[in-house]
């Protein structure tokens, strides 16, 4: 069966420090991969998606970036965190165009 | 563009009460519709889905019917439990708009609180 894992689960970082959140999917090949952010208002904001290795589409311009170095690995990064980057980050995958998404457990980032 | 509108709440009910969470959508094509549930501190879990008009999705006592004529996908449960307390998200995926790979369009979520 397919599984998705993301880490770390919780992260507290100072303003201006770098960020790396990692997500891996097991049990499937060539998934579509996504990073969402859920801020205090509970809504979900799509940050990045990827349909293949090295292919990244950005939905919202900001100081975050994403990379997909391997088929089932998706990384969210920042060189310098801002206070506004605090939130709950969710990785997700899908295999069908237009099909449902399957989410990881989430990573809670607090920037102080 | 596509959009999903749902009541934000919080919605507070007593145990064993009947639940309805309204969801309406706007889409350019013929979307698939989903309900997700998020328990505190966790990721989203798919609760149920419907892929065409008049389909009924159901799971764990929850139901939702895809109503094309009213562009709605309301979530219902006959008798809620304290363990149903969570945030519920309505979402759509519109393959016919040509953007199927770019994820789902989500509503803002409805916080449901069930009191014993």
Instruction: Give the rounded overall mean pLDDT of chain A.
Output: 92
- Sum up the overall morphology of chain A in one term: globular
In terms of quaternary structure, what is this? Answer: heterodimer
Poorly predicted parts of chain B: none
The number of helical elements of chain B comes to: 0
Describe the structure.
The complex is a heterodimer of chains A (about 110) and B (about 120). Chain A has about 110 residues and is mainly β. Chain A is about 0% helix and about 60% strand. In chain A, strands 2, 4, 5, 6, 9, 10 and 11 form a seven-stranded mixed beta sheet that branches. In chain A, strands 1-3-8-7 form a four-stranded antiparallel beta sheet, with no helix packed on it. Chain B is globular and about 40 Å long. Chain B is mostly beta strands and about 120 residues long.
Key descriptive features of the protein:
heterodimer; A: 112 residues; mainly beta; 7-stranded mixed beta sheet; 11 strands; globular; B: 116 residues; 6-stranded mixed beta sheet; 4-stranded antiparallel beta sheet; 12 strands; 0% helix
How do the helices and strands line up, and which of them pair or pack?
The complex is a heterodimer of chains A (112) and B (116).
Chain A (H helix, E strand, L loop, with lengths): L2 E5 L2 E4 L5 E8 L5 E7 L5 E9 L2 E4 L5 E7 L2 E6 L8 E8 L7 E2 L3 E5 L1
Parallel strand pairs in A: 2-11
Antiparallel strand pairs in A: 1-3, 3-8, 4-5, 4-9, 5-6, 7-8, 9-10, 9-11
Chain B lengths: L2 E4 L4 E4 L4 E3 L1 E4 L5 E7 L5 E7 L5 E4 L2 E4 L9 E3 L8 E8 L11 E2 L3 E6 L1
Parallel strand pairs in B: 2-12
Antiparallel strand pairs in B: 1-4, 3-9, 5-6, 5-10, 7-8, 8-9, 10-11, 10-12
Short précis:
The complex is a heterodimer of chains A (112) and B (116). Chain A has 112 residues and is mainly β.
